[in-house]
Write a structure and sequence with these properties.
The complex is a heterodimer of chains A (120) and B (222). Chain A has 2 helices and 8 strands. With 120 residues, chain A is of the alpha+beta class. In chain A, helix 1 (3-18) packs across helix 2. Helices cover 39% and strands 22% of the residues of chain B. The chains are: A alpha+beta (120), B alpha/beta (222).
């Protein structure tokens, strides 16, 4: 259960970024989370509600886009999307996949703010 | 009322990743091979490490360990009996080690005096997978008592590992351990990963494991 620490990092980053905008209210925080990021989205959302209470981010929505695993298949010569995380073989040819191209992301993509003016 | 989108595009664990990158650079500059050992509680990380430290030291190699637990310094005391420098990291409730804790506990050690550093993570197959500690090799351990489907249940951790060690092979028989199935499952999640089958108690498989460490240090330590 490290989702609370992750939420704390999100709060830090968003709060830092807000310093550049006068009197902005955050409407939504958008995340990109890979299927192999090791984070449970339900748990993130649960922690989000608790951690934002009484802060400038209270009431802000958390929008999570989950990204499937994409790996390089050398045999097929292209990147392939895996259906899940129970097998790391190419869904087309069945060969073990090579390099991981997508799936470990744990990022804040953007924030939606209201009434914010860029400072100075 | 106007709203706008501000692009941030920032890694949530960026601070940890930056600290880990700094650690990785200092390990490389010192010619030190660093391994991060991860598993469930009770798999035998400490037992494997105890024997590994002893045998490496017997061969003249300089090995040290950092060991993470929520509470107690029992493991550090156990490992220190090998004669190797060992430090305990107590996380007081935190379920994983992070790069900041590693950096802080390396303070005062001259990395150039070491050949190997083993980091024994907190026993947990979930959270430690997200935290880079600057290691070159992440080793995931699986014991014969745990069930052959562990890799399928915890794919995030097994997929992020560079090597796997099956521990407690001396009791594989009585446990009804299906070796073929375990190997197949590990390979399904991390195809082609190097797998060692060991018993820290009898020493079975230790030669191959130690040879791997020596080889990896030659290839990757510098």
């Amino acid at each position: 259960m490290h989702e609370l620490s992750i939420v704390a990092s999100i709060l830090d980053t968003v709060t830092e970024s807000l310093a550049a905008y006068k009197s902005a209210r955050v409407v939504e925080v958008r995340l990109r989370v890979g299927a192999l990021a090791g984070v449970v989205v339900d748990s993130l959302e649960f922690c989000w509600g608790i951690a934002t209470e009484g802060t400038a981010l209270e009431g802000a929505r958390l929008a999570v886009t989950t990204l499937p695993v994409v790996m390089r298949c050398e045999k097929c010569g292209r990147d392939v999307e895996l259906e899940g995380v129970q097998s790391f073989r190419c869904p087309n040819c069945g060969e073990p996949c090579g390099e991981l191209r997508q799936g470990r992301e744990l990022e804040i993509d953007s924030i939606e703010i209201e009434d914010g003016e860029e400072a100075g | 009322m106007t709203t706008r989108i501000v692009e941030l595009r920032r890694g949530i664990l960026k601070k940890n990743d930056e600290l880990a990158a700094g650690l990785r650079a200092s390990y490389a500059a010192a010619g030190l091979l660093v391994l991060n050992l991860v598993s469930s509680p009770g798999t035998g990380k400490t037992a494997l490490l105890e024997r590994t430290l002893r045998e490496l030291r017997a061969r003249g190699a300089r090995a040290a360990a950092l060991v993470g637990d929520l509470e107690t310094d029992n493991d550090a005391r156990r490992l220190a009996s090998s004669g190797a420098p060992v430090r305990q990291i107590n996380t007081h409730g935190i379920c994983h080690l992070d790069a900041e804790m590693i950096g802080r506990h390396l303070d005062g050690w001259n990395l150039g005096d070491l050949d190997y550093l083993f980091i024994e993570n907190v026993g947990n197959l979930v959270c430690p997978s997200s935290y880079d500690l600057g290691e070159k090799i992440r080793v995931v351990l699986l014991s014969v008592t745990e069930g052959e489907d562990k890799p399928l249940k915890y794919p995030t951790m097994f997929n992020s590992a560079d090597a796997a060690v099956i521990t407690k092979m001396d009791i594989a028989g009585p446990c009804g351990f299906d070796r073929e199935l375990a190997l197949r499952n590990i390979n399904e999640i991390r195809p082609g990963i190097r797998i060692f089958e060991t018993s820290a108690k009898t020493g079975a498989g230790m030669e191959e494991w130690l040879a791997y460490l020596v080889e990896e240090r030659k290839v990757r330590g510098h």
